[in-house]
């Protein structure tokens, strides 16, 4: 009976199954996201974190289910191109009325790539490019609300705060409005010519809620973000962000995703792009929780960038070669590609599977603005012209289990793609004294932020950290990373005699999980001047007490105090840290 079905019948049934799966996934995604507002108002941080993990798992669950359904439906016609090309056409017609059509296209692609394990891209059976350049059916109402300033900025700001869904719960709305008004007036003038445009949905993350907008004036668009926090008994406006750099950091590729309800993701992404023009579209989709479509946008940008061979080629990334990964970068692009080596150099003793599990762990963990997000790609294909003979030789000798080098192409079975950052050791060599001091201090803050989010880097050498264009230090070498609570931080036992002092081996038992913070200082690799700078603010990192106290805080489920913006943007810089 299966073979008597026409191509048209199979295509309609298959398209409907995939569309039904996407609908079910999307409904559950929205249901989980919707809870964020109530979690924020009720100060339910534990519930928010549980929802964040649940939401990350939904996509995989539904792709698994629909893949199984499609295999059962098509059976021996599973790989019939005509069926899939027809199914794609039917599916495209089915999603034309949706304002989130791009997410639906990505869901279809996820199924086809599971079935075909496609090398490169096959436009006949997947949406290599979108079928729609803009929403085929625009939303019924604008995605933002407009507030015109005439002669009373305070009145306008008060109206904006009254527009919050939880304005009644604000501790002191009038006081917050006055502080916001003063900050805007001090930075932007003349205020009477300004117009505010704020996105309708609120962006939730951990203990924070963010109202995202832009100020339209004679200088064009200026970003504006009203950052709200809560403490044990109140909700209050904690900060006002009024520059591109600070808002870009809020939407960083080193942060976990916002929970934000939106009917038309395309319009929301375009709004954010208008205030963050340097932020890649892929990263904006990631930031609002649609990481699978963010991956699609990233893939398309890679295809576009490598469509035509030129004089430039991929090159080994700057920095010391990794013992676990071969890393190369794309010319004139802010991406690096990381491939797992066939064999790991001493002293690394990890496994290929363990490395993959580490990357998955980071994906699911609260990244606290310090862990670089990595997208994994299977069967990436490039024209061979992009690779120098030197790089091809490196890939052939070090990654033959992962890379196939053909006459005209290079195929990678698994590659991790990350944003390019400057290795910290290189940055410090090239920076002037003031910039180096600033970054070294942030290096210490990065280690502490990771610790408070239950991450121990394992190897804290400078080469494993990077510096973003915003001069923030981030961590990108995950092979020795582990939960902080799994470590046993100890003080070094005193030497018993001179023989102990001179011994190359420890004179005491060292367990597998033992860590001695006093040793960190020996391996920092900082110049004497920068070492003093680091020690002036972060000497506690060399004491087991800091790490033990942080472990106790984590065990007590006390939220980490990690704000996604600088103290200078807070309305009350003296307020105690509320955490985020």
Q: What characterizes the major β-sheet?
A: 6 strands, antiparallel
Give the total of beta strands: 21
Radius of gyration: 26 Å
Uncertain runs with pLDDT below 50, 5 residues or more?
none
Structural class: alpha+beta
Shape: globular
- Which range best describes the helical content: under 10%, 10-25%, 25-40%, 40-55%, 55-70% or over 70%? 40-55%
Count of discrete domains: 4
Q: Tell me the β content.
A: 15-25%
Helical region count?
A: 17
Summarize model confidence as the mean pLDDT. 90
Give the distance, in angstroms, between the N- and C-terminal Cα atoms: 58 Å
Task: Describe what this molecule looks like in 3D.
It is globular and about 85 Å long. The protein folds into 4 domains: 7-116, Methane Monooxygenase Hydroxylase, Chain G, domain 1 (Up-down Bundle), CATH 1.20.58; 144-297, no CATH class; 305-421, no CATH class; 423-569, no CATH class. The longest helix is centred in the N-terminal third of the chain and has 35 residues, at 7-41. It has helices spanning 7-41, 45-74, 81-94, 101-116, 153-162, 173-187, 244-250, 265-275, 281-287, 291-305, 352-364, 389-398, 424-430, 433-452, 498-502, 528-538, 544-555; strands spanning 144-148, 195-199, 203-205, 208-217, 220-230, 235-241, 315-316, 325-329, 335-340, 374-377, 380-383, 403-405, 409-412, 415-419, 422-423, 455-456, 465-467, 473-475, 482-483, 488-489, 514-515. The strands form 6 sheets. Strands 1, 2, 3, 4, 5 and 6 form a 6-stranded antiparallel β-sheet that branches. Strands 7-8-9-14-10 form a 5-stranded antiparallel β-sheet, with helices on both faces. A 3-stranded antiparallel β-sheet has the order 11-13-12, with helices on one face. The model has no long low-confidence stretch (mean pLDDT 90). With 580 residues, it is of the alpha+beta class. α1 (7-41) runs antiparallel to α2 (45-74), α1 packs across α3 (81-94) and α2 (45-74) packs across α4 (101-116).
């Amino acid at each position: 009976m299966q073979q008597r079905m026409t191509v048209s019948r199979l295509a309609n049934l298959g398209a409907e199954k995939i569309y039904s799966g996407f609908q079910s996934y999307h409904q559950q995604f929205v249901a989980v996201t919707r809870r964020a507002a109530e979690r924020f108002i009720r100060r339910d941080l534990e519930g928010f974190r549980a929802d964040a993990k649940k939401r990350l798992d939904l996509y995989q669950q539904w792709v698994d289910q629909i893949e199984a359904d499609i295999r059962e439906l098509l059976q021996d016609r599973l790989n019939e191109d005509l069926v899939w090309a027809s199914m794609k056409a039917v599916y495209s017609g089915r999603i034309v009325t949706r304002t989130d059509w791009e997410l639906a296209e990505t869901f279809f692609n996820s199924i086809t790539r599971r079935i075909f394990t496609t090398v490169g891209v096959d436009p006949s059976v997947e949406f290599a490019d979108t079928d729609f350049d803009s929403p085929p059916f625009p939303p019924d109402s604008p995605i933002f609300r407009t507030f015109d300033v005439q002669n009373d900025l305070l009145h306008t700001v008060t109206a904006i705060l009254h527009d919050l869904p939880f304005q009644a719960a604000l501790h002191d709305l009038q006081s917050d409005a006055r502080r916001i008004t003063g900050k805007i007036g001090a930075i932007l003038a003349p205020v009477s010519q300004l117009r505010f445009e704020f996105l309708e949905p609120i962006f939730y993350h951990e203990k924070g809620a963010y109202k995202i907008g832009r100020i339209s004036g004679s200088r064009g668009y200026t970003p504006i973000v009203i950052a709200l926090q809560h403490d044990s008994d109140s909700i209050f406006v904690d900060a006002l962000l009024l520059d591109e750099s600070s808002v870009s950091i809020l939407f960083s590729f080193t942060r976990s995703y916002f929970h934000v309800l939106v009917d038309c993701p395309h319009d929301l992404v375009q709004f954010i792009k208008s205030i963050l023009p340097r932020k890649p579209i892929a990263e904006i989709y990631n930031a609002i929780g649609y990481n699978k479509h963010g991956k699609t946008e990233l893939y398309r940008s890679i295809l576009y960038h490598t469509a035509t061979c030129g004089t430039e080629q991929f090159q080994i990334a700057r920095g010391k070669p990794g013992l676990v990964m071969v890393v190369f970068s794309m010319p004139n692009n802010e991406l690096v590609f990381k491939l797992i080596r066939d064999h790991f150099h001493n002293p690394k003793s990890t496994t290929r599977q363990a490395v993959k599990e580490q990357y998955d762990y980071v994906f699911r963990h609260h990244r606290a603005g310090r862990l670089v997000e990595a997208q994994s790609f299977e069967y990436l294909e490039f024209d061979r012209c992009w690779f120098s003979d030197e790089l091809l030789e490196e890939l052939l000798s070090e990654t033959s289990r992962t890379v196939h080098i053909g006459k005209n192409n290079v195929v990678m079975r698994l590659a991790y793609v990350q944003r390019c950052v400057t290795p910290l050791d290189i940055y410090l060599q090239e920076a002037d004294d003031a910039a180096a001091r600033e970054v070294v201090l942030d290096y210490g803050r990065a280690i502490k932020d990771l610790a408070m989010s239950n991450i121990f880097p394992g190897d804290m050498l400078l080469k494993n950290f990077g510096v973003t264009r915003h001069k923030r230090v981030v961590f990108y070498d995950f092979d020795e990373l582990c939960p902080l609570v799994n470590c046993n931080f100890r003080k070094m036992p005193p030497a018993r005699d001179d023989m102990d002092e001179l011994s190359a081996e420890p004179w005491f038992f060292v367990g597998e999980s033992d860590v001695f913070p006093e040793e960190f200082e020996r391996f920092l690799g900082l110049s004497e001047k920068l070492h003093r700078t680091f020690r002036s603010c972060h000497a506690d990192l060399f004491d087991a007490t800091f790490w033990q106290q942080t472990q106790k805080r984590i065990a007590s489920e006390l939220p980490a105090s990690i704000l996604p913006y600088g103290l200078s943007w807070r309305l009350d810089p003296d307020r105690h840290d509320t955490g985020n």
